């Protein structure tokens, strides 16, 4: 009590000092002034940032020094040192606040000269016991949130009175106008023309700024509401309509808030002011700004692109904002997830507005898998990864492939089983990516497994691949041998004179003459003869080809381009077989030993010597060519076809879906093409090989002429002998011509043969060396191994 009485005396003395002349002998302060000062001191009004005690003292000393009051500064320093050092009973506990009060009073008196001559409080500034003088300027607007309730209410009433004196329109009317504007309705004083207030009305600048800030909410509401109204009556897609429904739900909550504020504004006991509205509008304004931003970003988007754009806006750290965006995305993504579910479970694509990221195209059944369905990455939401999107695409595509191409409907039971096992048996929603992946995984596993079983068991995919290897890639040795022997004479004729029906009959005969006759009849019926487009000078060898008929669904793997690659490989292998067959034919013709014949012994010695030399030269050249053809044939059959087939079989066993199987087969085919010198990087090497084939065929032609000469003379002698015996004459046409004529005739023919053999041998060696020199430069390692097969003794390498 004594301390409170002492404080009151000190405050009375301070007010008296401020109110009256210090020289007055009888100070008599006004009681209202004293009560006001005590109320201010007893309240907890403080500046937002209050410096510490030492900083305030240094500020006072610096101020006195700047005013050239050095003696006062020294006196203050001495007094402050004693004041700060005094502790214990009777000392001031809150020294910092006291120093701050003295500093503020001093600065205020110096900044307001009127207070020097008029120290009395003006009656006009005392209203209901509350001092509201605007002269105090240090500290700005003081914080009174911790003051007693009665003091706060008094301060609010004083502030309202002050505002009413500055404005022509009451604050209640302004609040009503602002609430109307926020509902999209023009107010009495605030119009929609950028919320301009009439210049004829007197409003303070602060009030105008406040109204403009509050009316921003109305502007955003009009934008959002216009977007909702425009899109709800148009065919913009189900995702856009779901987005509008989500916005409508948020706008409904906004209308509820405005209804509450409207009722508060008309309540006589209410105290709704513009500042209170600013507090109420903080959260709705933030939410409406975000909805306005969403409307701007989604204006030209639809479907998955719209959902992805909204998802990107939801990446925010504010939990309230995150909850708002999640509620909105749950409604927006619901149609998308329903489409995903229908596609994965039933293969149905109910996408009337092209909003889903899977695009459907009308194609033939054989193109259904490769071209029927594609991913539109523009419509792929950002919360669905590309890998998951590809799995979703393949699952629905597999169901449609089973329905359309395989005519299989047992997949429905598998889809039902996948749905029952999936942890999410109800509808999917935004944020449930794990549940979506689980559903896709279950459906994908069962559908792909059933599809692979159908392809391999019902349609015998592996058996057809093996049939293509045996017949198109000439892996069935006995069949190829029989076919080559019976069609060889026919294919030597001009292509335009060959009948396709005749060749088909010869093909059937070759099948019946080999072990291929025991194969499945469905496979044999697919094997057909095909004649390539040909010119006038083309022979049957140039246009003959075998074709394999692949039907739905096998033609999903064996497409036209794939069969075209098989045709290229067959043409190359058929050339090799033809050359091999021709070389073996030369060997069969050279096999009889003419030097031991009776006719040979009766020829002149010089002729006999030339025949032996020419035959030996032909035999040596045949050995070289036969070695090359045998090495090339072994490389193609073992290093290329068999090794590649073994790897492809392993990949077929490991295939879990049709995409993997198609990729494995494409890899198998590309490997054969690359290793068989048919790739783009081996064009020069392939041309050199074709030149070698031409040279070898020229050699077989020369060798056939030589063998024909020897055989003709032997047969001629036998025939003439029989004729002479029947006629009783033993004359020989060769001997009748005379030894000299026979020697000249044989020498001329054998000389020509020798020159032709030398020319062929020289050209063969040159082309072969060029071919071998290109092998080390090939990128594929197996082509380098071909060089080792052909030139394992390094004969050609050392010769170059």
Primary descriptors:
two-stranded antiparallel sheet, cytoplasm, single chain, GCP_C_sf, mainly alpha, gamma-tubulin binding, 6 strands, GCP, 800 residues
Quick synopsis:
By secondary structure, this protein is mostly helical.
Count every helix, treating DSSP H or I runs of 4 or more residues as helices: 32
Overall 3D shape: elongated
Beta strands, count: 6
Fraction of residues in helices?
55-70%
Radius of gyration, rounded?
53 Å
The major sheet is characterized as: 2 strands, antiparallel
Q: Strand-residue fraction? A: under 5%
Mean pLDDT level: 80
Decide which structural class fits the backbone.
mainly alpha
Strand order of the largest sheet: 1-2
Distance between the termini: 125 Å
GO cellular component, one term: microtubule
Protein name: Gamma-tubulin complex component
Keywords: Cytoplasm, Cytoskeleton, Microtubule
Family: Belongs to the TUBGCP family.
């Amino acid at each position: 009590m004594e301390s409170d009485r002492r404080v009151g005396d000190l405050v009375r003395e301070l007010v008296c000092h401020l109110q009256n002349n210090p020289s007055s002998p009888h100070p008599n302060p006004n009681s209202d002034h004293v009560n006001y000062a005590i109320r201010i001191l007893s309240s907890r009004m403080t500046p937002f940032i209050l410096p510490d005690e030492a900083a305030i003292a240094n500020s006072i000393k610096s101020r006195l020094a700047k005013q050239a009051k050095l003696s006062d500064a020294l006196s203050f320093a001495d007094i402050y040192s004693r004041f700060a050092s005094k502790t214990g009973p009777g000392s001031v506990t809150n020294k910092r606040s006291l120093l701050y009060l003295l500093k503020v009073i001093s600065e205020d008196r110096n900044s307001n000269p009127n207070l020097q001559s008029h120290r009395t409080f003006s009656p006009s500034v005392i209203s209901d016991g509350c001092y509201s003088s605007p002269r105090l300027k240090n500290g700005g607007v003081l914080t009174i949130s911790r003051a007693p309730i009665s003091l706060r209410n008094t301060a609010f009433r004083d502030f309202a009175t002050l505002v009413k004196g500055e404005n022509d329109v009451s604050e209640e009317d302004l609040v009503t106008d602002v609430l109307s504007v926020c509902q999209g309705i023009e107010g009495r004083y605030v119009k929609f023309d950028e919320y301009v207030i009439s210049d004829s009305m007197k409003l303070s600048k602060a009030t105008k700024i406040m109204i403009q800030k509050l009316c921003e909410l109305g502007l955003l509401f009009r934008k959002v509401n216009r977007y909702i109204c425009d899109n709800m009556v148009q065919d913009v897609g189900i995702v856009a309509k779901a987005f509008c429904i989500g916005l409508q739900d948020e706008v409904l909550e906004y209308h509820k808030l405005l209804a509450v504020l409207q009722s508060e504004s008309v309540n006589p006991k209410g105290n709704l002011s513009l500042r209170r509205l600013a507090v109420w509008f903080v959260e709705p304004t933030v939410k409406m700004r975000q909805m306005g931003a969403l409307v701007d970003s989604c204006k030209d988007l639809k479907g998955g692109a719209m959902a992805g754009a909204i998802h990107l806006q939801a990446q925010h750290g504010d939990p309230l904002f995150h909850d708002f965006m999640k509620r909105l995305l749950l409604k927006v993504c619901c149609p998308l997830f329903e489409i995903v579910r229908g596609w994965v479970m039933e293969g149905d694509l109910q996408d009337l507005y092209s909003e889903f990221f899977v695009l459907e195209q009308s194609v033939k059944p054989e193109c259904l898998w490769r071209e029927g369905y594609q991913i539109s990455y523009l419509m792929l939401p950002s919360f669905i990864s590309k890998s998951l999107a590809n799995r979703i695409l393949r699952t629905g595509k597999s169901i449609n492939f089973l329905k359309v191409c395989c005519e299989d409907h047992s997949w429905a039971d598998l889809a039902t089983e996948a749905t029952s096992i999936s942890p999410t048996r109800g509808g999917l929603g935004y944020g449930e990516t794990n549940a979506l992946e689980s559903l896709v995984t279950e459906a994908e596993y069962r559908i792909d497994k059933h599809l692979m079983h159908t392809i391999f068991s019902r349609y015998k995919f592996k058996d057809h691949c093996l049939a293509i290897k045996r017949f198109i890639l000439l892996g069935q040795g006995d069949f190829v041998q029989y076919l080559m022997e019976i069609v060889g004479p026919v294919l030597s004729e001009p292509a335009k004179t060959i009948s396709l029906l005749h060749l088909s009959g010869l093909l059937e005969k070759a099948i019946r003459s080999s072990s291929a006759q025991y194969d499945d009849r469905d496979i044999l019926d697919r094997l057909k003869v095909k004649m390539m487009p040909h010119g006038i000078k083309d022979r049957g060898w140039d246009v003959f080809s075998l074709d394999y008929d692949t039907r739905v669904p096998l033609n999903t793997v064996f497409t036209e381009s794939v069969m075209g690659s098989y045709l290229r490989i067959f043409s190359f292998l058929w050339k090799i077989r033809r050359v091999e067959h021709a070389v073996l034919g030369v060997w069969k013709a050279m096999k009889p030993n003419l030097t031991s014949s009776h006719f040979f012994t009766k020829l002149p010695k010089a002729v006999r010597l030339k025949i032996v030399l020419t035959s030996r030269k032909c035999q040596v050249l045949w050995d070289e060519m036969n070695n090359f053809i045998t090495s090339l044939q072994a490389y193609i059959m073992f290093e290329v076809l068999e090794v590649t087939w073994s790897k492809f079989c392993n990949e077929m066993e490991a295939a879990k879906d049709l995409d993997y199987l198609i990729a494995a087969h494409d890899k198998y085919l590309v490997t054969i093409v690359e290793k068989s010198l048919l790739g783009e990087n081996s064009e020069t090497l392939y041309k050199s090989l074709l030149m070698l084939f031409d040279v070898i065929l020229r050699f077989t032609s020369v060798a056939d002429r030589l063998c024909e000469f020897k055989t003709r003379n032997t047969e001629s002698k036998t025939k003439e002998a029989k004729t002479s015996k029947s006629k009783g004459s033993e004359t020989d046409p060769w001997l009748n011509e005379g030894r000299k004529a026979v020697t000249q005739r044989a020498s001329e023919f054998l000389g020509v043969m020798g020159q032709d053999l030398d020319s062929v041998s020289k050209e063969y060696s040159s082309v072969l060396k060029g071919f071998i020199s290109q092998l080390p430069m090939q990128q594929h390692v197996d082509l380098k191994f071909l060089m080792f097969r052909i030139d394992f003794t390094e004969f050609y390498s050392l010769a170059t």
